[in-house]
Specification:
Elements: E1 2-8, E2 17-22, E3 25-32, E4 35-40, E5 54-56, E6 61-63, E7 70-72, E8 89-90, E9 92-95, E10 98-103
Antiparallel strand pairs: 1-10, 2-3, 3-4, 4-8, 5-6, 6-7, 9-10
Length: 116
Amino acid sequence: MSETTICRLDELTDGEGRRFDVEGHRLAVIRIADAVYVIGDRCTHAEASLSEGEVDVATCHIECWRHGSSFSLITGHPDALPATRAVPVYEAHVRDGDVVVAIADAGADTNAGANA
Protein backbone atom coordinates (compact mmCIF):
# COMPACT_ATOMS: atom_id res chain seq x y z
CA MET A 1 0.00 0.00 0.00
CA SER A 2 1.31 3.41 -0.87
CA GLU A 3 -0.10 6.69 0.37
CA THR A 4 -0.55 9.65 -1.95
CA THR A 5 -1.51 13.22 -1.11
CA ILE A 6 -4.15 14.29 -3.62
CA CYS A 7 -5.21 17.78 -2.49
CA ARG A 8 -5.87 20.04 0.47
CA LEU A 9 -9.12 19.44 2.38
CA ASP A 10 -10.13 23.07 1.89
CA GLU A 11 -9.96 22.57 -1.91
CA LEU A 12 -12.93 20.17 -1.71
CA THR A 13 -16.49 21.47 -1.57
CA ASP A 14 -18.54 19.98 1.26
CA GLY A 15 -21.21 17.59 -0.08
CA GLU A 16 -19.77 17.32 -3.59
CA GLY A 17 -17.56 14.89 -5.47
CA ARG A 18 -14.39 15.58 -7.39
CA ARG A 19 -12.45 13.31 -9.72
CA PHE A 20 -8.75 12.57 -9.36
CA ASP A 21 -6.55 10.22 -11.39
CA VAL A 22 -3.91 8.65 -9.14
CA GLU A 23 -1.45 5.93 -10.12
CA GLY A 24 -3.77 4.57 -12.81
CA HIS A 25 -6.85 4.69 -10.57
CA ARG A 26 -9.82 6.93 -11.38
CA LEU A 27 -11.09 8.16 -8.00
CA ALA A 28 -14.21 9.99 -6.81
CA VAL A 29 -13.30 12.00 -3.71
CA ILE A 30 -16.22 13.22 -1.61
CA ARG A 31 -16.05 15.55 1.37
CA ILE A 32 -18.78 15.48 4.01
CA ALA A 33 -17.96 18.00 6.75
CA ASP A 34 -14.40 17.09 7.83
CA ALA A 35 -14.62 13.49 6.60
CA VAL A 36 -13.31 12.34 3.21
CA TYR A 37 -14.52 9.29 1.28
CA VAL A 38 -12.78 7.85 -1.78
CA ILE A 39 -14.40 5.33 -4.12
CA GLY A 40 -13.84 4.25 -7.71
CA ASP A 41 -15.18 6.91 -10.05
CA ARG A 42 -16.82 4.56 -12.59
CA CYS A 43 -20.40 3.43 -12.08
CA THR A 44 -20.45 -0.35 -12.42
CA HIS A 45 -23.59 -0.21 -14.54
CA ALA A 46 -22.63 2.19 -17.32
CA GLU A 47 -19.19 3.58 -16.41
CA ALA A 48 -20.48 7.11 -15.83
CA SER A 49 -18.38 9.35 -13.59
CA LEU A 50 -19.68 9.05 -10.02
CA SER A 51 -17.90 12.24 -8.99
CA GLU A 52 -20.49 14.10 -11.08
CA GLY A 53 -23.35 12.53 -9.12
CA GLU A 54 -25.46 13.92 -6.30
CA VAL A 55 -24.20 13.25 -2.76
CA ASP A 56 -26.65 12.36 0.02
CA VAL A 57 -24.77 13.61 3.08
CA ALA A 58 -27.32 12.11 5.51
CA THR A 59 -26.81 8.53 4.27
CA CYS A 60 -23.22 8.79 2.89
CA HIS A 61 -24.29 7.71 -0.61
CA ILE A 62 -23.65 9.08 -4.08
CA GLU A 63 -26.11 8.74 -6.94
CA CYS A 64 -24.93 8.13 -10.48
CA TRP A 65 -26.17 10.98 -12.65
CA ARG A 66 -26.75 8.75 -15.67
CA HIS A 67 -29.23 6.09 -14.48
CA GLY A 68 -29.79 6.76 -10.76
CA SER A 69 -27.86 3.92 -9.13
CA SER A 70 -26.78 4.88 -5.63
CA PHE A 71 -23.54 3.70 -3.99
CA SER A 72 -22.45 3.68 -0.35
CA LEU A 73 -19.39 5.85 0.22
CA ILE A 74 -18.42 3.51 3.06
CA THR A 75 -18.76 0.06 1.45
CA GLY A 76 -19.00 0.83 -2.28
CA HIS A 77 -22.10 -1.37 -2.56
CA PRO A 78 -25.05 -0.16 -4.66
CA ASP A 79 -28.46 0.16 -3.05
CA ALA A 80 -30.42 1.07 -6.16
CA LEU A 81 -30.69 -0.57 -9.56
CA PRO A 82 -29.60 -0.78 -12.30
CA ALA A 83 -26.11 -1.25 -10.76
CA THR A 84 -25.60 -4.60 -9.04
CA ARG A 85 -21.82 -4.61 -8.45
CA ALA A 86 -19.90 -2.53 -5.92
CA VAL A 87 -17.24 0.04 -6.76
CA PRO A 88 -13.80 -0.06 -5.11
CA VAL A 89 -13.39 1.78 -1.82
CA TYR A 90 -10.07 3.36 -0.87
CA GLU A 91 -8.76 4.19 2.57
CA ALA A 92 -8.42 7.95 2.99
CA HIS A 93 -7.73 10.40 5.79
CA VAL A 94 -6.79 14.00 6.42
CA ARG A 95 -3.27 14.69 7.66
CA ASP A 96 -2.24 18.27 8.46
CA GLY A 97 -4.96 19.56 6.13
CA ASP A 98 -3.94 17.27 3.24
CA VAL A 99 -6.20 14.55 1.85
CA VAL A 100 -4.21 11.32 1.72
CA VAL A 101 -5.40 8.15 -0.04
CA ALA A 102 -3.93 4.65 0.20
CA ILE A 103 -3.48 2.91 -3.14
CA ALA A 104 -2.74 -0.81 -3.31
CA ASP A 105 0.60 -1.66 -4.85
CA ALA A 106 0.64 -3.31 -8.28
CA GLY A 107 -0.55 -6.90 -8.13
CA ALA A 108 -2.53 -6.34 -4.91
CA ASP A 109 -6.32 -6.53 -4.74
CA THR A 110 -7.57 -3.00 -5.50
CA ASN A 111 -11.23 -3.97 -5.33
CA ALA A 112 -11.36 -4.62 -1.60
CA GLY A 113 -14.80 -3.09 -1.26
CA ALA A 114 -16.21 -4.51 -4.48
CA ASN A 115 -17.91 -7.69 -5.57
CA ALA A 116 -16.25 -9.73 -8.30
